[in-house]
Predict the 3D structure of the following.
Amino acid sequence: MKNLLIKLFFYIIGLVTISLGVTLTIKADLGAGAWDALNVGLTESFGLTVGTWVIIIGAVLIISNALISKSRPDLLAVLTILVLGKMIDFWMSAFAEMSMNSWIAQLVLLLAGILVIAFGVSLYIQPQFSINPVDGFMVALQKRFGLSLTAAKTLTETFAFIFAFTLGGPIGVGTFIILLGIGPAIHFFDHRAQKAMKRMLS
């Protein structure tokens, strides 16, 4: 029971941390990640909050992933979209008045957001529970069509990028900085988070 609680702690805290990082990248106003830009674009085009669109798109992807991979829907992934969606709305509200008055401040906020997202991802993947539907979309494509993870990731990001651009979402230089920087940042934190959880479990 203790081990389960520790793993659940890493999982939930990781998701909450990711939501904070996502909010920081959006507030930096240099361009958000492709999926986050899509959610912002949907908010600006159709209303509802960014977090609500995270939940809606996540639910659609859970069903789509099951159809693509010809398996049962990953119902536990619902937890990821609920936590991310609700917490993104919380942080967006908390930082509603935040505005950067120089591009240097924007860049610093963007880089901070990338590091926070990466730290959160490194925490939430340690217990090896259900992954969020966006990552599930990548895995479903990879397994169904025999793609490499890199190719599958590129396809899913391109899909989100096109729709975000069409909807007028915040696509910019920050979008490409996130795309290039998030992988190395996750790699930096991953083994540290792994060691921390192992210490707590032992």
Observations:
- The chain is about 80% helix and 0% strand.
- The chain has one domain: 2-201.
- The radius of gyration is 17 Å.
- The helical segments are 2-28, 34-46, 50-69, 77-94, 103-124, 133-145, 149-166, 173-201.
